[in-house]
Design a protein that fits this description.
198 residues; alpha+beta; 3 domains; four-stranded mixed beta sheet; three-stranded antiparallel beta sheet
Length: 198
């Protein structure tokens, strides 16, 4: 199915196979085998390479059409599956569950990187969506880690005094308060916090 959609896309870009391609800015320049890891398992297909007649550069336009970076093998839907599984399971168990459900081989390191990618994306979206707050509340706490060490967690909440609605604006783990504060710069006129002893 991917190859059929790709053939239609390439024909639209480069013209018909045996046409002279008058007016076309691109020409087919061979194929390469490509492997993608998805939530439905591993998919192999023939990826068409295209050459620009204007500057001679080579590209794989179908990857752009699918939203994939040139060397990326893990499709976003599997990234989301890995991150979702890691919400409920350890990385080791997430690895086993993903492999048994999809047939895709993932490592604990891969699950961790998926969690980091999804978390970073959600954090960016949250910051874009957050409105200017009237008040900021800051607080910190300690949480025990699996290795027995304590983690310092800093949180900054924003409050709309008109509606009473609160939203998470800043969150850091094992970072200085100055780093947490950078996340909420220009969000409010007042910050309320309590300084506690060690």
């Amino acid at each position: 199915m991917l190859e059929k959609v790709q053939d239609e896309f390439i024909q639209e870009l480069c013209g018909r196979r045996y046409s002279l391609g008058e007016g076309s800015r691109f020409r087919k320049a061979g194929t390469a085998k490509r492997t993608l890891v998805t939530r439905h398992g591993v998919i192999e297909f023939r990826l068409v390479k295209v050459k620009s007649l204007e500057n001679g550069s080579m590209m794989r336009p179908f990857l752009l059409c699918m939203g994939l970076e040139p060397r990326k093998r893990i499709v976003d839907d599997l990234v989301l599956e890995c991150a979702e599984a890691a919400n409920y399971l350890t990385y080791r168990d997430s690895e086993k569950v993903i492999e048994s459900l999809t047939g895709a081989e993932v490592s604990r390191h891969r699950v961790h990187s998926c969690v980091q990618r999804v978390g970073a994306h959600m954090d960016r979206e949250r910051r874009k969506a957050s409105r200017k707050a009237d008040l900021l509340y800051a607080d910190g706490t300690k949480a025990h880690g699996l290795d027995g060490k304590k983690n310092e967690i800093n949180v900054i909440l924003g409050k709309d005094t008109e509606t009473g609605e609160k939203s998470l604006l800043g969150l850091t783990v094992n970072r200085k308060w100055e780093e947490t504060a950078k996340q909420v710069r220009d969000k409010a006129e007042v910050l309320i916090g309590a300084r506690t002893g060690q």
